[in-house]
């Protein structure tokens, strides 16, 4: 019995050690970012404070310096528990592989060097109107036929989040296209091409004739949406980024797939202050005229909306040009945001409370707190419509506001500016 008991203890001890080791590896891997960017010509310092070694390999000889030692053919092994310096003479790419005991590979980090970049900082309110790429299905419902019977023609065929892109081989761009197809069907089966996730599938649905003589398939659909947000930046080439997060459908939570769209000048006419449990909002008017159109909307991603401004865009002409700051430039402490509340773009003080250099969630790399008394008096903190407000620290554009904390409207999340510039 003593031998068995001793064996159980040893087994339990080994399992505990393995569990602690596994958790420790997972925890430390998560602290290391998946990608590191450098500005060419500038020396960057990194303090990962991780009890591991790493091997760095590059694709260009002598371009990248690590701890002031040129990366020649082969590789350089570094200690992640020490402060590391990196400098790239020109644009290049390299790979850093974190290793356990210097042997077992745990995580690969991509290193890239980019040229210094300056952008026009935004902060102005913009109105966004986008049309989906196809018709978005919000859900299905029942239909009462002319015989007074209840039918569900689209049940288990069409799903919430589907995009109807074709019907009987005819392209569907909007609700009107779909309604015309139903009208012409005369109750015969319609073969839809539906984009579900990343796949295109075929779905057959037979419309039901209703008492008024129209044909229905029992679906709720949407083909456009609009709202107000904040412009973050405009590049020297006229490409812009805004919002810091994607536009999702309010009913399905699906990231809208944009077919076309435009950004317009917007006028803030009312501010609903944020309160605990109730996020506030900026209400405004979107001036949807060609004169007030700022540019196109070409992409809607998890990092924001993106497009091209017009050549005569006033925000580009009148904005302030500023260098961008990368993740490693961001520090806890004082910073500021720029946003439009009362007709003009103002600069308001904030505090950066947390920085997640691992960049696990692109929309939540920063935790910020509004400290400016004037902004708190005007809005209660962060409100809907301020998404995309530029975050500035030490004279550099380092990020954008993305979300507000429901329980504390003075706090919210931000994204690193490099996440938006990827798009």
Summary of the model, kept short:
The chain is mainly beta and 423 residues long. Helices cover 14% and strands 47% of the residues.
**Given the helix and strand composition, which structural class is it?**
mainly beta
Number of helices: 5
What would the principal axes of the Cα set say about the shape? globular
Largest sheet: spatial strand order = 28-29-30-33-32-31
Task: State the assembly state of the protein chains.
Answer: single chain
Q: Could you tell me the strand content as a percent range?
A: over 45%
First-residue to last-residue Cα separation: 66 Å
Q: What share of residues is helical?
A: 10-25%
The parts where pLDDT drops under 50 for at least 5 residues are none
Number of strands: 33
Which key phrases capture this entry?
423 residues, mainly beta, 5-stranded mixed sheet, 6-stranded antiparallel β-barrel
Write the layout of secondary structure elements.
Elements (H helix, E strand, L loop, with lengths): L1 H30 L3 E5 L4 E3 L6 E6 L5 E3 L2 E2 L5 E4 L4 E5 L3 E9 L3 E11 L3 E4 L3 E16 L2 E2 L5 E2 L11 E5 L2 E2 L3 H11 L4 E7 L2 E7 L2 E2 L5 E2 L2 E16 L4 E4 L15 E15 L8 E6 L6 E4 L2 E3 L2 E5 L5 H5 L1 E5 L8 E8 L4 E11 L10 E5 L2 H7 L10 E4 L2 E9 L6 E6 H5 L2
Parallel strand pairs: 1-9, 27-32
Antiparallel strand pairs: 2-7, 3-6, 3-8, 4-5, 4-7, 8-9, 10-20, 10-27, 11-14, 11-20, 11-22, 12-13, 14-15, 14-16, 16-17, 18-19, 20-21, 21-26, 22-23, 22-24, 25-26, 28-29, 28-31, 29-30, 30-33, 31-32, 32-33
What does this structure look like?
The model has no long low-confidence stretch (mean pLDDT 87). The chain is globular. The strands form 5 sheets. It has a 6-stranded antiparallel beta barrel. A 5-stranded mixed beta sheet has the order 1-9-8-3-6, with no helix packed on it. Strands 2-7-4-5 form a 4-stranded antiparallel beta sheet, with no helix packed on it. The termini are far apart. The chain contains 5 helices and 33 strands. The longest helix has 30 residues, at 2-31. With 423 residues, it is mainly β.
């Amino acid at each position: 019995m003593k031998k068995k008991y001793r064996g159980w203890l040893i087994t339990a001890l080994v399992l505990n050690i393995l569990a602690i080791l596994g958790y420790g590896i997972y925890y430390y891997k998560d602290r290391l970012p998946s990608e590191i960017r450098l500005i060419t010509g500038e020396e960057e310092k990194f303090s990962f404070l991780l009890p591991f070694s790493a091997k760095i390999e590059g694709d260009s000889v002598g371009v990248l310096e690590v701890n002031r030692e040129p990366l020649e053919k082969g590789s350089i092994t570094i200690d992640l528990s020490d402060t590391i310096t990196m400098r790239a003479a020109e644009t290049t790419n390299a790979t850093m592989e974190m290793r356990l005991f210097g042997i077992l590979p745990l995580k690969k980090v991509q290193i890239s060097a980019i040229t210094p970049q300056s952008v026009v900082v935004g902060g102005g309110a913009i109105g966004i109107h986008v049309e989906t790429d196809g018709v978005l299905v919000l859900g299905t419902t029942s239909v009462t036929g002319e015989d007074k019977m209840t039918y569900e023609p689209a049940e288990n065929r069409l799903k919430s989040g589907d995009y109807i892109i074709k019907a009987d081989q005819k392209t569907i761009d909007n609700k009107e296209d779909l309604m015309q197809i139903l009208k012409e069907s005369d109750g015969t089966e319609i073969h839809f091409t539906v984009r579900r996730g990343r796949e295109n599938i075929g779905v057959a649905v037979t419309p039901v004739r209703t008492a008024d003589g129209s044909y229905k398939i029992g679906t709720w659909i949407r083909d456009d949406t609009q709202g107000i947000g904040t412009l973050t930046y405009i590049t020297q080439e006229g490409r812009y980024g805004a919002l810091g997060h994607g536009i999702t459908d309010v009913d399905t939570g699906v990231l809208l797939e944009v077919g076309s769209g435009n950004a317009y000048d917007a006028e803030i006419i009312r501010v609903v202050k944020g309160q605990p449990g109730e996020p506030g909002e900026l209400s405004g008017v979107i001036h949807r005229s060609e004169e007030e159109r700022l540019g196109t909307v070409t992409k809607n991603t998890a990092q924001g909306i993106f497009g091209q401004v017009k050549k005569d865009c006033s925000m580009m002409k009148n904005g302030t040009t500023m260098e961008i700051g990368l993740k490693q430039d961001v520090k806890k402490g004082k910073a500021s945001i720029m946003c439009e509340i009362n007709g003009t773009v103002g600069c308001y003080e904030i505090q950066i409370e947390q920085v997640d250099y691992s960049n696990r969630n692109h929309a939540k790399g920063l935790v910020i707190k509004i400290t400016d008394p004037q902004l708190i008096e005007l809005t209660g903190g962060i409100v809907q419509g301020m998404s995309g407000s530029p975050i500035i620290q030490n004279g550099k554009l380092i990020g954008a506001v993305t979300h507000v904390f429901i329980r504390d409207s003075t706090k919210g999340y931000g994204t690193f500016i490099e996440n938006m510039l990827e798009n």
